[in-house]
Every structure is written in structure tokens, then in C-alpha cells.
């Protein structure tokens, strides 16, 4: 009989097959965040598995562990462990807890600890201990573990919360290898189509229903639909259909018993969620209920659809910056990327809470402080979204922050300056050019008059203040200069900048803005002016095209969106079409879409469908 391996042993084994060089037990312990002793125990089983395959696992003191086999053999062994051995893992506590929850949720009656012990093949005492953990986990979903003398255990609570928990567990159990197998199956053709069984909800009705749902999905999905759905959405639709069918088999519905009345319209529109639901529900002779379709088709857990995305983006960046003491608010690219993500995420037609996210575990392990900061900020800033703020949602937002963090770790340190002069106007361009040309590693954050200096300084949050007036009670570095900076002024400014940078290198204040190249100022100024003029023209024309359809309270946000949109198109960084197009909206607003395309074409810009989809989110909802 094949050797049973734990999940961690599987991961170590796959890592060894991927590595060309050696790796030490200490490095493995750091990678998997366990002790060296635990790794050594794991390696005993891994060595035994390699012995069964007649492969030598080499070890040497001060060098580590490695394999000396050709790539073809590595690939064969990798396929073996991915496709066979990982389904024979010894159930650790996390896996047992997930199995217990699925059994309790997908059984019509109570289950005793003895029955659970026999099904999962562990001792009764282990089951009792695991059930305490089950109770702790389901409590966060506002569910209850019922304990009835002589009858056993069951889980009860709101049906939507039960299904949310099932989605969470299912996506925890599905691995990236499962995802690859499923998506490969979707794109295969002809007689070669072969679907390996996905080991989720093992020995429950869900496992068989899910396989039926996957098979039916492959018969329905058409390559022309791939630009409407990304793989996570396809996976979510399939999972929800299987979960709905599983619970309805046990007579648990998510709402009432009203039948779905617009089936013919949905059939004509070829709505993928409806088509899959009908196939699977017909297979199990289940009624097509309106509330069940709403559960499958959309997100029943998010109550607010009028979130101010611009304000939300600013608040999230500000709050995360404050909590982890890193000035993300200085990175404009982060604002653009995060705004785009939240716009599409919170206004999209198919909004799935527990979408598959392969980055969750790594981000939580490697960046716990950032993950926690985003979680707290999201819970505070996003309206009516208690259940939306889960690990998957947070991890996707964290990716944007990590891009900004990693990108700016290696950039030149820069000191941001606010210059206080007599009026805040006048010779500011001359002053800015002189300072940028003669002082290294500085950025002019803004100019202020003596009347609004406090407000500007608070808003710009500079590292250094230059002023022609002696400003009192400033809690940051300050240099008094002449109205037109002299050589002595320049020397004083550079000395203060050097002090601040020295302080920064000691780890006090991370920087995010690289120094501007002064010699390129004229070219940049001319190009920026052209973009601004073109943007204003496009904005005015779009206002006319949208007319009364534009949501008036979002008019300022619409202006910002158009500005960023023109900037993205100009610099070849439009939103990706994949997963960001909502065909129904484009078809419904086809006349407006044509006008938008004509406006951009007239201004020598080609706009794609993802950008148009995002722009149409500003249409007033009836």
C-alpha cells in the first residue's frame, strides 16, 4: 500500500523535485515556518516515499538535501505525487475539522462521535477534541454546534452563513493543482477530455454533485465566454451550483419557494449561471427556485452598491499607511491600481465572496502586519461589508500594496519640501527649478502662503519646510531662506536634506518618491500640458454623451476616473480585458459605448472594452 503523507510533506516533496540545487533543513524550516525537528520527521517519510520510487535522496552535512535525477524523471515523479499521493494524505487537524463540518452539514440527521470516528478513522477522543475547534470556527459565521444527548451533533444557523462556510472550506481544500486540472479540462476537446476526481467533501453528497457540475460546465462553457469570466469566477459559479444542489437535497433552501419565472429570457441570453443551474438541478430533479438562482448568480451578502470608490481608495491607503507607519499615500500608481481593483470588484455583476485566491497563505505568513492593517482598514472603511472582508478579498488588496512596497524599497531616498513664500504664487516655477537643479534628492511637494501654511503643511505632510518667514512651533525640520534662494540658502538646504536622509537610512522614515530629472522638465511639462488639454476635451464630450444617465453625486469621481483613464490609455497600461468585461452592460448600453469609442478615436486614443465597462459603472441606477 502506498505511503501516507501529510500536506506539508507533499509540499516539501514537490519543492525538492523543483529544486536543481540543495536545500538545508534550516531553510525548509524557515520556508514552512516550523521547527527543524519537525522537518527532520517529515524527511523520514519523504525518504521512504523516494525509496518506494527507487530514487535516492542525497544528504550531506553543511550542504543539505538534493536529488540527482534527470528532468524527465522529476516530471514523472511530480505527476505521480500531484495526481495520486496527495489524495492519500493522513488527515491533519485542519483537514479533519473541514471534513467534520462537511459531514455535519450534509447529513440529514445527527451524527454521533462514534460514527464520526469511524468515518474519519481517528479515535473518539480525537473527534471530541476536534469538535471543540469546529465550534470555535463556526462561531465566527454565527452558526451553532448542537450537542444532543444520545443523538449526537449537528450544525444549525442561517442558510446563507452555512453556504458561505461551505465555500470557504471548499476553496481551502482545492489546491492550485486542482485548479489547473479543472481549467485544463474546460479547454480540452473531443474524446481526450478526462476529468480527475476533485477530493473535496469526500464521502458526502457534495463530492458527486460537484463532479456532475464540473462535467456540465465543460459542456456549456464556450471559448467566446472566456473574456466575460476569469477562472476564479467560473470556479465560484460551479461551486455555488454544487453547494445549492447539495443543501436542497437535504431540503434546505436559501430563501423562499417561489419558482424562477424568467427562465426563457435567461435561456435566450445564454446566462452561464442559469444554464449550469438548470443542467445540475434537472439532473437531481430539483426545482428552479428564484432565491437559489439569486444565490448562484450574484452576491447575496453585500447590501451596499453605492460606495464612493474614490473616497474608499483614499481612506484605505491612508489608514494602512498610518497603521504600519509606511507612506503608501505618496505612491500615485498604488492609488490608480487600487481604485481600478475596487471599482471592478465592488460594482461587478458577478461578485463572489469566496473567490479562489492562491496568495492567501503566503501573504498571511510573510506579511502579517500588512494583512492585519488592510483587514482593519477594510472593516472600518467599506460600508455594509462584514462578510465581504475575508482572507481572499484582503489578500488581493495586499498585492497592490506589496507592489508599491517592493518597488519603492530600492528607489532613491527623497526629501519632500513645502516652500512658504509671500503669496504662494508668483515666482514659484523659478524657485522650484533652482532648488531641483542645485539640491540633490528633493521633491517640491507644494507651495504655500503664510496665510494657509498650516493647512498646506498638514495636507502635504512634507519632510522639510523652506520659508521666507520665521515660522514658529513647527514639529518638523525647517530652514529660513531668502525670497530668491542664495548660494548660502542652497548650502543650508542641502545640509538639512543630508541630515534627513541619514536619519532615513537608519530606518526611521521610508521614502516612496524618486528624484525628478530636472533636465527633462521642459519635455515633461509640454507632454503633461497636452495630456491635460486632451483629457478636458474628452471629459466634456463624455459629460454630454452620458447626459442625465450620469450619477450626479459621482460627478467629481467621474472626472478623476476620466483623467486616470486617459493617462492609462496614453501610456499603454489599460485595464486587462480578461475578467474585467461585462458583456451584458456593453450590449445594454451599446449606443453609449459607440459614442465613447468615437470620442476617444476622435482624440487619437483607442479604448478597450474593460475601460468602457469601468466607465459605465457611473451610470445612474434606476
Automatic annotation (TrEMBL):
The keyword Transcription appears for this protein: yes
Superkingdom of source: Bacteria
A single GO BP: phosphoenolpyruvate-dependent sugar phosphotransferase system
Domain PTS EIIB type-2, chain residue ranges per copy: 415-505
Xref: InterPro entries: BglG_antiterminators, HTH_11, Mga_HTH, PRD, PRD_sf, PTS_EIIB-like_sf, PTS_EIIB_2, WH-like_DNA-bd_sf
Domain PRD: 304-411
Single GO MF descriptor: protein-N(PI)-phosphohistidine-sugar phosphotransferase activity
Keywords: Activator, Repeat, Transcription, Transcription regulation, Transferase
Name of the protein described by the UniProt record: Transcriptional antiterminator
Protein source organism: Enterococcus termitis
Taxonomic placement: Bacteria, Bacillati, Bacillota, Bacilli, Lactobacillales
Amino acid at each position: 500500500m502506498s505511503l501516507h503523507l501529510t500536506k506539508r510533506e507533499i509540499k516539501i516533496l514537490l519543492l525538492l523535485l523543483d529544486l536543481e540545487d540543495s536545500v538545508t533543513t534550516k531553510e525548509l524550516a524557515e520556508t514552512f515556518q516550523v521547527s527543524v525537528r519537525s522537518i527532520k520527521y517529515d524527511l523520514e517519510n519523504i525518504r521512504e516515499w523516494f525509496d518506494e520510487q527507487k530514487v535516492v535522496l542525497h544528504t550531506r552535512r553543511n550542504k543539505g538535501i538534493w536529488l540527482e535525477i534527470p528532468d524527465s524523471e522529476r516530471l514523472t515523479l511530480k505527476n505521480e505525487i500531484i495526481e495520486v499521493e496527495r489524495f492519500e494524505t493522513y488527515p491533519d487537524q485542519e483537514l479533519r475539522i473541514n471534513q467534520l463540518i462537511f459531514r455535519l452539514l450534509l447529513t440529514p440527521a445527527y451524527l454521533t462521535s462514534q460514527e464520526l470516528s469511524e468515518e474519519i478513522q481517528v479515535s473518539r477522543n480525537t473527534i471530541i477534541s476536534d469538535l471543540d475547534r469546529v465550534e470555535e470556527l463556526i462561531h465566527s459565521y454565527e452558526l451553532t454546534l448542537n450537542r444532543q444527548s444520545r443523538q449526537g451533533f449537528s450544525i444549525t444557523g442561517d442558510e446563507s452563513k452555512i453556504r458561505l462556510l461551505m465555500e470557504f472550506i471548499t476553496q481551502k481544500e482545492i489546491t492550485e493543482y486542482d485548479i489547473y486540472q479543472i481549467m485544463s479540462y474546460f479547454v480540452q476537446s473531443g474524446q481526450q477530455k478526462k476529468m480527475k476526481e476533485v477530493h473535496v467533501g469526500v464521502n458526502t453528497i457534495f463530492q458527486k454533485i460537484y463532479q456532475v457540475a464540473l462535467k456540465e460546465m465543460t459542456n456549456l462553457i464556450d471559448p467566446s465566454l472566456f473574456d466575460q469570466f476569469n477562472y476564479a469566477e467560473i470556479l465560484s459559479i460551479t461551486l455555488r451550483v454544487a453547494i445549492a444542489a447539495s443543501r436542497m437535497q437535504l431540503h434546505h433552501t436559501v430563501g423562499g419557494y417561489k419558482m424562477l419565472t424568467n427562465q426563457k429570457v435567461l435561456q435566450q441570453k445564454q446566462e452561464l449561471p442559469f444554464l449550469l443551474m438548470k443542467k445540475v438541478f434537472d439532473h437531481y430533479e430539483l426545482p428552479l427556485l428564484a432565491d437559489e438562482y439569486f444565490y448562484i448568480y450574484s452576491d447575496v451578502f453585500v447590501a451596499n452598491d453605492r460606495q464612493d470608490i474614490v473616497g474608499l481608495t483614499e481612506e484605505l491607503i491612508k489608514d494602512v499607511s498610518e497603521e504600519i507607519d509606511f507612506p503608501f499615500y505618496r505612491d500615485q500608481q498604488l492609488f490608480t491600481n487600487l481604485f481600478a481593483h475596487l471599482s471592478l470588484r465592488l460594482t461587478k455583476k458577478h461578485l463572489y465572496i469566496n473567490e479562489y485566491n492562491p496568495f492567501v497563505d503566503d501573504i498571511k505568513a510573510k506579511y502579517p502586519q500588512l494583512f492585519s492593517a488592510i483587514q482593519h482598514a477594510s472593516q472600518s472603511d467599506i460600508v455594509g461589508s462584514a462578510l465581504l472582508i475575508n482572507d481572499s478579498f484582503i489578500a488581493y488588496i495586499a498585492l497592490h500594496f506589496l507592489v508599491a512596497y517592493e518597488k519603492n524599497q530600492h528607489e532613491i531616498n527623497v526629501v519632500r519640501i513645502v516652500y512658504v513664500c509671500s503669496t504662494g504664487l508668483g515666482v514659484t516655477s523659478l524657485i522650484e527649478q533652482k532648488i531641483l537643479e542645485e539640491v540633490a534628492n528633493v521633491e517640491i511637494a507644494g507651495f504655500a502662503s503664510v496665510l494657509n501654511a498650516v493647512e498646506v503643511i498638514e495636507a502635504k505632510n512634507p519632510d522639510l519646510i523652506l520659508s521666507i518667514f520665521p515660522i514658529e512651533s513647527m514639529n518638523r525640520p525647517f530652514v529660513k531662506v531668502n525670497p530668491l534662494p542664495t548660494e548660502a540658502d542652497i548650502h543650508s538646504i542641502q545640509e538639512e536634506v543630508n541630515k534627513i536622509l541619514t536619519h532615513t537610512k537608519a530606518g526611521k522614515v521610508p521614502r516612496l518618491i524618486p528624484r525628478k530629472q530636472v533636465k527633462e522638465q521642459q519635455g515633461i511639462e509640454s507632454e503633461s500640458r497636452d495630456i491635460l488639454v486632451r483629457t478636458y476635451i474628452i471629459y466634456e464630450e463624455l459629460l454630454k454623451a452620458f447626459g442625465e444617465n450620469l450619477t450626479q453625486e459621482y460627478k467629481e469621481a467621474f472626472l478623476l476616473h476620466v483623467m486616470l483613464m486617459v493617462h492609462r490609455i496614453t501610456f499603454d497600461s489599460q485595464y486587462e480585458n480578461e475578467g474585467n468585461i461585462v458583456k451584458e452592460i456593453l450590449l445594454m448600453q451599446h449606443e453609449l459605448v459607440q459614442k465613447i469609442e468615437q470620442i476617444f478615436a476622435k482624440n487619437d486614443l483607442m479604448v478597450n472594452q474593460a475601460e468602457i465597462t469601468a466607465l459605465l459603472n457611473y451610470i445612474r441606477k434606476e
